[in-house]
Amino acid sequence: MLYNLGRYILLLRLAFKKPEKFSVYWAEVMREMVSVGIGSLGIVAIISVFIGAVATIQTAFQLVSDFIPKTIVGTITRDSTILEFSPTISALVLAGRVGSSIASQIGTMRVTEQIDALEIMGVNAPGYLISPKIIAGVIMIPFLTIISIFLGLIGGYIACAASNEVSPSDYITGLTDGFKVIILQVSMVKATAFGFIITSICAYQGFYTSGGALEVGQSATKGVVYSCIMILFADLVISRIML
Amino acid sequence: MIETINIHKTFGDNQVLRGIDAQFKPGKNNLIIGGSGSGKTTLLKCIVGLHKPTEGEVLYNGENFTKMHFVERVPIRKQIGMLFQSSALFDSMSVQDNIIFPLNLFTKMSRAEKIDRANFCLERVNLAGKNKLFPAELSGGMKKRVGIARAISMQPKYLFVDEPNSGLDPKTSILIDDLIAEITQEYQTTTVIVTHDMNSVMGIGDHIIFLHNGKKWWEGNNKEIAHTDNKELNDFVFASKFMQAAKEKL
Predict the structure, then answer these.
(1) Domain ranges, ordered by start, for chain A
(2) Do B105 and A117 touch (CB under 8 A)?
(3) What ipTM does this complex have?
(4) B105: chain A residues, CB-CB within 8 Å
(5) Which residue of A109, A116, A121 is in closest CB contact with B102?
(6) Shortest Cα distance from B78 to chain A (angstroms)?
(7) How many CA atoms lie within 13 A of B191 on its CB side?
(8) From the DSSP assignment, how many helices (H) and strands (E) are in chain B?
(9) Which of B48, B86, B104 is the closest to A120 by Cβ?
(10) Dihedrals φ, ψ of A163, to 5°?
């Protein structure tokens, strides 16, 4: 484990060395941002609406009491969506979608000698292949999380409108009640950390693939599994520190 | 000129190279031949810096490449072109983008100049007009030729070729061999080719090194190889009935 940790840190050091030509790297960052951001928008949108709706229905179900105002459903849905559901569940889904794609792409480049070709040319392969992906992940995953929060809350509204548990107006009142900026800050810190975790761990797994197609698949699986574990661990640590 | 001095390479307990001394001169097709597992690809990877030799040195025009740091190697790497066994073209890029990739990173050429250079390289390998195709749309022989076009795009002083004929039909193999030989002559490159294809050996082998059990077993050219009394080399070169029949006619 220490060997892998050391190798991971050394790889990240290499990845963030001065680029050979900034414009070429910048073009790669843009391409990766489109791939990570636009490419993941659909799946993030779908899960967010459903998560928001389910969170609202379950909260309303558990808080059936005349002593509790109905607006609390909106407040709880808002806080749990911003703090936990949107950043964490989106990140877990993105680990599957973006992470496996990064690990298999870099892994395939390794086993088909494309990384060797880069090194022969004098290109810093970790820098060219990994740093644009990490930058794209760190920028785009918080953006996706913001979209996810927005759609999650809309999902909650739809759930209210479709059922008689809570009225939409109570839900809206609950959403705007006692909002603290810190929860949004925590959410963004989490999303940024998760973006880094997904892209760097999966890139590491792909970069050190050896063998053939079977090993590329194994690297992608390892990348996703380790990313998910580290996302949950980071979630705990950030929540403990910031809340 | 490239020189290897006492190159040893060990992977765990497996000693692959056992003290290789060799010189590879410019303008010549330098062939490294040998059976599977003899260490020829490992030697090539040590020469280009993909493997670090366990012991020994690689000199490029007298400069000790082995001891250089990654950044120090870049000026030499810019003078290296390499054709990989699998061609190693970048899947996500078109033929043209593959060829201009090193130009994008290491030159200040304008876009038009880079495209001109790509067109020139593609014409040189008889693939004019194939700029927009992607590697997945190319045959094995075409991939090799695009690999050569990419390798020569920076006008290299050193050209390395790993198994240029693997997976190709005999006619395409000869085409690739002739192309490499022409480029070597035209640009006076120091060309090092790893192969076990006997047509290549007989056709373009100006300087041949035969590896056996990780050692340099024999050195000569394609004229001398047919008349050698080296048992291991004879077993390797004349293993097929076709080559045995050819030897009898020599």
Answers:
(1) 36-242
(2) no
(3) 0.87
(4) 20-21, 24, 121, 123
(5) A121
(6) 6
(7) 32
(8) 9, 10
(9) B48
(10) -125, 170
- The pLDDT tens digits for B229-244 are 888 888 888 877 777 7
Closest chain A C-alpha to B232 CA, distance in angstroms: 31
- Residues B65-107: tens digit of each pLDDT: 999 988 899 899 999 999 998 899 999 999 999 999 999 999 9
Both tokens of B140, joined, read: 């094995």
Assigned token pair, A235: 């979630």
Please report, as a single letter, which amino acid is at residue A54: V
Q: Which residue has the tokens 């038009």?
A: B112
Contact B105 A120 (CB under 8 A): no
Q: Which residues of chain A neighbour B88 with C-beta distances below 8 Å?
A: 112-114, 116-117
Q: Residue holding tokens 């920076």?
A: B154
A112: closest CA of chain B, how far (Å): 6
Token digits of residue A119: 């090194």
Length of chain B: 250
Nearest CB to A21; choose among B90, B104, B160: B104
Asked if B154 and B82 touch (Cβ cutoff 8 Å), the reply is no
Crossing angle between the packed helical segments A22-33 and A131-162, to the nearest 10 degrees: 20
| Domain residue spans of chain B | 1-79+158-167+187-250, 88-155
Q: Does A112 touch chain B (CB under 8 A)?
A: yes
* DSSP state letter for A19: P
Indicate the fold that domain B1-79+158-167+187-250 takes in CATH: Rossmann fold (3.40.50)
Residue among A69, A76, A70 at smallest CA distance from A55: A76
CA dist A209 → A104, A106, A164, A217, A218 (Å): 9, 8, 54, 10, 9
- The letter for the amino acid at A100 is S
Rounded CA-CA distance B99/B186 in Å is: 19
Q: Is A24 on the interface with B (CB under 8 A)?
A: yes
Q: What is the pLDDT of residues A16-27, one digit of tens each?
A: 998 888 999 999
